[in-house]
Amino acid sequence: MTDTAGYTRYMEAVPEIVEKYGGRYLVRGGEAHPLEGDWKLNRIFVLEFPDEPSLMRFYEAHDFAVLKAQRQAVSHSRMIAVEGIDEALPIP
Asked: Going by C-beta distance under 8 Å and a sequence separation of 6 or more, which residues neighbour residue 34?
């Protein structure tokens, strides 16, 4: 974070938009400790969306774009999308 106040404003506004597009937080900040490797962890967020189209509607939405630009202006981040598992399928 390069601007704590700006990042705080982002964090206060984004949960409503996540929920609007069907997402929910599974992990939001909190302590993170690497168990293997040399990760340098600061904050980790894990969001769940019902499917990839829902995720992309959120990520590409105008109302999130405004907040995304705000976040990018006050912090450095990495973001990935990971496909979940189909609970109906047995795990081999």
From this structure: 41
Q: Is the pLDDT of residue 44 over 80?
A: yes
* Residue range 1-25: mean pLDDT, rounded: 92
SS (H, E, C) 5-33: HHHHHHHHHHHHHHHHCCCEEEEECCCCC
Residue 72 CB burial class (10 angstroms; 0-12, 13-18, ≥19):
exposed
Q: What is the CATH number of the domain that holds 18?
A: 3.30.70.100
Q: Give the global pTM.
A: 0.79
Distance in angstroms (rounded) separating the CA atoms of residues 2 and 50? 32
**Count of structural domains within the chain:** 1
